[in-house]
Amino acid sequence: MIIPHAKPGSSTQNLTGEWKAYMPIVTGDKCIKCGICQNFCPEGIMGEVKKIPEIDYEYCKGCSICANECPVKCIAMERVEED
Amino acid sequence: MAVNCKLDVVACYPITPTTHLTEELNKYYADGKIPEYITVEAEFSAISALIGASATGARTFTTTGGQGLLYMHEPLFSAAGMRLPIVMLVGNRAVSSPLNIWNDEQDSISQRDTGWIQIYCKNNQEAVDTIPQAFYIAEKILLPVMVCVDGHYLTHAVEQVDVADESIVQKFLPPYKYPLKLDPENPVSLGVYANPTHYQIFREDIMKDMESSKELILEAGKKWGQLTGREYGLIREYMVADADRVIVGVGSLIDNVITVVNELRENGEKVGALHLRVFRPFPREELKKALAGKKVAVIDRDISIGGAAPIFVEVAEALNGTKAEVSSFYGGLGGRGIKRTHIRDVFEKMKKGARREWIATEAPKSAMSG
Hints:
Helix content of chain A: 10-25%
Number of helices of chain A: 2
Strand order of the largest sheet of chain A: 2-3
Mean pLDDT of chain B: 95
Shape of chain B: globular
Largest interface: A-B, 14 and 22 residues
Mean pLDDT of chain A: 92
Low-confidence stretches of chain A: none
Number of strands of chain B: 14
Number of helices of chain B: 12
Radius of gyration of chain A: 15 Å
Oligomer: heterodimer
Order of helices and strands of chain B: EHEHEHHEHEHEHEHEEHEEHEHEHE
Distance between the termini of chain A: 31 Å
Largest sheet of chain A: 2 strands, antiparallel
Strand content of chain B: 15-25%
């Protein structure tokens, strides 16, 4: 018998990035550290501004906004393949 | 009877054929016998209010039927999914359109996938006895229970019933304790988001618990029998053991079938009646044991437009591979009576192989438009 419930703060424990169809891959040496991707990311999972993005894939939904906004196009969206 | 179960919160929106029950509950509230009665603007609100109340640890009850039950459809899933042991009395009523206030079981049969336990009462004695059992079952397995009573045929029938007094009910029904109650001191959210990795785990769990509630229903029925002399199970057989032809049905219909069984037995015909008291969880093993190899006719007062009649489908599935020959008769909708003559006719037709057809198809004496 399981009652579906959540205690406060459980969104930090429940991972929500497992259903993405595309994942962003950053090519670090092209990155100009402009911070645009980090500011546009609706999930706030692109790491610190002024640094090369460090993506938290456990929460990334694969929306492609980062890749779309990147002025130097250093973020590629790669298909996530599953059997 | 519900009041003898020491209710905490009631929320109802009146609808025929349970309006008078709503009024009675209101009166009990006015007399101080129900601590909280929430007046609501619709059935969706009634069940939603009870979802909240039940989650705070209150024992909750409501009544509805027909369109009112359909209007609850979406929160019915939520109540079951949150594992809230709400008990609801459904006065079974036909659904629109055309508008009809009379009896069939289309309303509650259409809620069969919501995760509510469904118990169908064949008379008012069963109805009053089933309410405390419903709380007993609901609060142990943490699933809501619908107690289904035929609208008008039962809700508006005057008959003698033995209402167990409060002391018996107290002996039977332990106080309700919801293990995870909503409490500002220890906050939790109920029924929250579950992603694809988790969602199905809950659905598998509720399915398993619904299956295992059969034991609990039997336990409640037996315990109630010890206290009152009236024992209940998942199905009730009447002269089924040696019968070659058996009619299966839910609700008040079955007493008419029993009358015809008595009549035909006098002529030496081996016929029987089986009351399907519990429809969810579906007692497939019990039916298999009772009906294997026999000619079986299921009377549905509910239809699935474009498909086979719902109760028939389940009975046929349960009896698959037992060499039982299962027929489907559907009708008696919107208060069209299924009379003894129709039942005699069904027993006759069963001799000649499996059938699927309407029952009680008399043309009306008054004109319809068009």
